[in-house]
Amino acid sequence: MENIVITIARQYGSGGKTVGEMLAKKLNIHYYDKELMKLASDDSGINEALFVNADEKVKSTRLFHIAKSAYSGELIPPESDDFTSTNNLFNYQAKIIRRLAEEESCVIIGRCADYVLKEYDNVLSVFVHAPKDFCMEQAAKKHSMNAKELEKFITRTDKHRAEYYKYHTGREWTDARNYDLCLDSSKLGFDRCVEEIMAYMNVRFQ
Predict the structure, then answer these.
(1) Tell me: the pLDDT tens digits for 42-59?
(2) 3.40.50.300, 3.60.20.30, 3.40.640.10, 3.90.76.10: which CATH number matches 5-205?
(3) In this structure, which of 27, 53, 61, 101 has its CB flanked by the most CB atoms within 10 Å?
């Protein structure tokens, strides 16, 4: 198997992003996060700001409470009024994720990548989580908020991620059955999380 892709979903403050960056560096492969929006913009011709704004907009709406069939890979043509809809913006990001999985080994953070690539044999999906106290401690290193504000911020962020995932996949974000590997970063630490993922890769892909 030439290409191996590791997708990482993570609770806010669990350090999943850090684990992903460390893993990519260790394996000497590319790390993709927000860069996916730029790649999707280049591919579709849709202004990158629309991808960014769509992400921000849905956080303050009840869009994701609306029932929707899960992502199927179909793209809406430019002549359609829905070409720049939230659904199509996601579809273009998914198109890029699938292309990357076919072309190179890489680490992909978020974006429901585990679901988008669920039919690919070269994908290892990981969910990084941690107890509230640990997530609070990690988040406090990046945000100047009091404990109450920080707790609300983390809860709101994870709620958005869960609704985003449910809307585009029809699945529950925190359901362990969606992933190959679930890691508690508070018990393992970031370095050991990387080691565990690599050990799993060695067994899975030999």
Answers:
(1) 877 776 777 766 665 555
(2) 3.40.50.300
(3) 101
